[in-house]
Amino acid sequence: MIVVERIAELRDRCDAARRAGKTVGLVPTMGFFHEGHRSLMRAARAENDLVVTTIFVNPLQFAENEDLAGYPRDLAADTVAAEAEGVDVLFVPSVPEMYPEPTVTTVHVSGLTEGLCGAARPTHFDGVTTVVAKLFSIVGPSTAYFGRKDFQQLAVVRRMAADLDLPVEVVGCPLVREPDGVAMSSRNAYLSHDERGRAIGIFASLRAAAAAVEAGERDPGRVRAIVEDEAARHGLELEYAEVRRTSDLAPLATIDGEVVVAVASAVGRARLIDNVTMQIAGAEVSTDLGVIPIAEQESTS
Ligand code: AMP
């Protein structure tokens, strides 16, 4: 694996790979790797000749009052992890390398970015789409891998790629959880012991939502109330609990078809997000709560 800091060098290497007929897979991240990130690298490794992983804590997607300065970083550990997953190129640009001039050009996806996380973070997704568009332009990947944990981000990036005819397939990978169900997140590092205990309530609230739908509940308002009640039992106040259609994140009058129940909650200084997706056809419900990696299951047994 080689570590690259310069855009020009990364572009040269990706251009050369494509000229040689190789496929290029891209995994964009902000680093501080956990199994969620590593699962994306494995998916990319399985399907591509050249795997590029990027680590960039993108200032554009943080608002003034957010955690840019304190965002967890560990380049040494990340380098070891990426190498172990068979990554070919680890791109770790500085902020001036990515933004040599103040940014006056941004990519904005309207509609999809307005509710859910976009309500509390109105500038966040413009930062995400702008940096992802830049990475797509530099790397020229045939396939890019994103986690379904950041469900809205995945929908927004997909829509950007479709609307701008970007020649890249955007793949959504399973949400990876800790053995107790808490969604893996770099921001879990912020949690105290007590807060980590309460974070389980987020997963419990989504399980309660899934159980209610599996038992026949089809009213989005009642499912939201179930989610909020279960979170409250764990001492959590949710920033939002929403029931949306997965394809376009539109609100639903009745729970039917492909549906996501998405939540966000501030736990201490960590803002955590999570979701469960369900496919509903009449009385049939199939639920996707994500995966717990086997290595994690074994390490706790
Ligand atoms: P981040 O470094 O948090 O910006 O995340 C980089 C990529 O990893 C994004 O596509 C995330 O959706 C994905 N990711 C983060 N956490 C998880 C997780 N628990 N399961 C699956 N993918 C994840």
Your description of this structure?
The chain is an alpha/beta fold and 301 residues long. The chain is built from 10 helices and 10 strands. It has helices spanning 7-19, 35-47, 75-84, 95-98, 117-120, 124-139, 151-163, 193-214, 220-233, 294-300; strands spanning 2-4, 24-29, 50-55, 89-91, 143-147, 169-173, 238-245, 257-267, 270-281, 284-288. The strands form 2 sheets. It has a 6-stranded parallel β-sheet, sandwiched between helices. The longest helix has 22 residues, at 193-214. It binds adenosine monophosphate (AMP). Adenosine monophosphate is lined by residues 29-30, 36-37, 40, 146-147, 149-150, 173, 175-176, 183-186.
Shape: globular
Using only C-alpha atoms, the radius of gyration works out to: 19 Å
Enumerate the distinct ligands: adenosine monophosphate
Largest sheet: 6 strands, parallel
Strand content: 15-25%
* Oligomeric nature of the chains: single chain
Structural class: alpha/beta
- Compressed to H and E, one letter per element, the order equals EHEHEHEHHHEHEHHEEEEH
Helix content: 25-40%
Which regions are unreliable across 5 or more consecutive residues at pLDDT < 50? none
Separation of termini? 33 Å
Number of helices: 10
